[in-house]
Amino acid sequence: MSDQSALSRVRVVLVQPSHPGNIGAAARAMKTMGLASLYLVRPKSFPDTEAYTRASGATDVLDRVVITDTLGEALIGVTTAAALTSRRRELSLPVQWSRDAAHTLGQHVLANEQVALVFGNETFGLSNEDLALCQLPVMIPANPDYASLNLGAAVQLMCYEMRLATTDIGLAPAMSTAMATVDEVEQLMQHIERATTATGFFDPSNPKRLMPRLRRMFSRIALERDEVNILRGMISFFERPLAHRRAGTIEAEARADSSES
What we know:
Structural class: alpha/beta
CATH topology of the largest domain: Alpha/beta knot
Number of strands: 7
Order of helices and strands: EHEHHEHEEHEHEHHHH
Strand order of the largest sheet: 3-2-1-6-4-7-5
Oligomer: single chain
Radius of gyration: 32 Å
CATH architecture of the largest domain: 3-Layer(aba) Sandwich
Shape: elongated
Largest sheet: 7 strands, parallel
CATH class of the largest domain: Alpha Beta
């Protein structure tokens, strides 16, 4: 694995994109995965306000766009170009699935080579002539009964695969919330036992397995300290009406005793 700079050697090439919104969507997809080099071959409309709107903040990618007249110009300096296609072409090189292709391209990137992800027109895809300029035909293993991906979605998927293939993403972010300690969980258990006994739900003389089952459940889910505090707060709130009812009963009994006397 390499560092983030590996992705600077991956360029995305859109050949004759017809919708400026898709250019913006591609820029956004690239930036979310750490890519920044976007080439456009004969775009129908660019620069375009819709492209910048759809980029959703990835305007720096659009500001650095390179526009060329031919795919050959867009591939100058590239050692391996991967052509995204939705169908197997005659006389083409062996096709790789997107994940395998990202691994193949990643090896070139990690060897300090420039590579390209080449996407065709939204309606017609890549011409056979453009496909012939690429060394690696790539297909996305989509539903064979409906394999039509939006251009922005296809770019997002391949940028994601390239990020996984070239960058050490490390471990997923750890929880920042403190875990409950053994004694805090035990205090919760005692609180539950007091409250359920007071309401009559739990009978200490016939405990069965209520408390052990609750303790096992809490151990299995690994309670956080905040969760323990929430549970204890709820129990305390539920206990209040019970205490008020008891106080009212005691007062009523006192009034009854005084009236009899």
